[in-house]
Amino acid sequence: MSPRLAAATRAALVAPTTTTATTSLDPVIAKLTALGLDYPATVLPELLEAAARDDLAPVAFLDRVLTAQLERKDERRIATMLKLSGLPPGKTLEDFDWGFQPKADRRQIEALATCQYLRDKTNVLFLGPPGVGKSHCAVGLGVKAIKNGFSVAHFVLDDLLHVLKADAAVPPARLRARRYFNCGLLIIDEIGFRPLDRIEANLFFRLVSARYERGSILLTSNKHVRDWPEIFAGDEILTTAILDRLLHHVAVVHIDGQSYRLRQLGALLSPLRAGSRPADGPPPSSPPRRTPIEMEQD
Fold first, then answer.
1. CA distance readout (Å), 147 to 77, 150, 188, 219
2. Does residue 279 lie in a domain region?
3. Shortest CA distance to 154 belongs to which of 184, 177, 178, 187?
């Protein structure tokens, strides 16, 4: 860049400190807005002042503006996709209590957080007793998927079955428009809390078959897969067909341990809780009961 051009650029960057110069930015702001560059259009004077202060070259200034715009655009995308996903808020892998649940394979779950399984169309199956963090990890992986550019749909099994029943008459070809079919990651939570009837089991099979090798499914269950015939209407043949497709490409995560929901139970049931007598002392004595005659003498 020639010295004359560099000097002119620096002068332009300093210009927004005056009212006249700020007014002259209005046409530029209008063009940025027309191009959809909302962030630099909103804070252009501040951006120019920062560029002058940091003595940025024009190319570096342009890169800073575009990077900031892309970051805001991605923030809006993530916020929108989180709303559409149905993921419950407030559960991320970053706030998962690994110390309380040491049997959870942190390395395996963090490897899943890279989202390579989504690129490979691999399923994920979380198994373990209630309350150990299966749903938390599933939601956390859903958040990671959205941040990595994948669409996500989250359902508790009962809610999903309600939707599947409503779509029971829809031809398979038209299911492609449904969110539970075309998303990059379908999360199905709470499999095993109640048995499905035959109609529900067949609808579940249709869903699994439709997504087979087309998109990943992440499931959580409190029952081992050997007990799944009990879930799917007692039909071992249908259960085998479901598992054949789910487990062909799958990562299985076992979590065993104490329930998060019951971790305060010991304290609540402890004889030392507030209001109870000390363990090494006698129970407090009650005042002697007064007779009606004594009460009349008062």
1. 9, 7, 19, 20
2. no
3. 187
CA dihedral (31, 35, 36, 38) in degrees, to 10, reads: -30
Rounding to the nearest 10 degrees, give the CA dihedral for residues 170, 174, 178, 184.
Answer: 130
- The DSSP symbol for 102 reads T
Contact 138, 189 (CB under 8 A): yes
The total domain count for the chain is 2
Distance, in Å, from the CA atom of 279 to the CA atom of 161, rounded to the nearest integer, reads: 52
Which of these three, 27, 56, 85, is where a domain ends?
Answer: 85
CA separation for the pair 44, 27 (Å, rounded): 12
What would the DSSP string read from start to end of 19-75? HHHHHHTHHHHHHHHHTT-HHHHHHHHHHHHHHHHTT--HHHHHHHHHHHHHHHHHH
Kindly report, residue by residue over 126-165, the tens digit of the pLDDT: 999 999 999 999 999 999 999 999 999 999 999 999 999 9
- CA-closest candidate to residue 183, choices 162, 160, 158: 160
Residues 6+ apart with CB under 8 A from 281: none
To which H or E segment does residue 85 belong?
helix 58-85
